[in-house]
Amino acid sequence: MQEVHDFLKKCQTYYLATAEGGQPRVRPFGTVDIFEGRLYIQTGKNKDVFKQMELNPKIEISAFDGETWIRVQASVVVDDRREAKAHMLEAYPMLKGRYSADDPNTQVLYLKDAEATFSTFTGEPKTVRF
Questions:
Q1: Is residue 71 within 8 Å of residue 13, measured between CB atoms?
Q2: What is this structure's pTM?
């Protein structure tokens, strides 16, 4: 999990895919945090992406650092605890202008049953699960 976290942080932007009915939806994301041994992402409850994850918690994440790319398959689990929100916002203080740990719109989710595959054009893929 730490390796996945570090790779996504290095890339700064990753792409999160959800489903809306039968249509895939992909958008850039940038938040990733480890809290209490789980990998978290953050969004707003009023966003379509959150509504899509509520209906279907299966997601995929992809990122590329110029040499290696990652694809993460997981299910997301909502965590409404203030402590989890505060931890994420401490990791991303620039979000504090738009979100707060006490704001009912702020939402953090952790990845469950995750499988991450690191790939390159020349090497063998490496898969980690957490």
A1: no
A2: 0.96
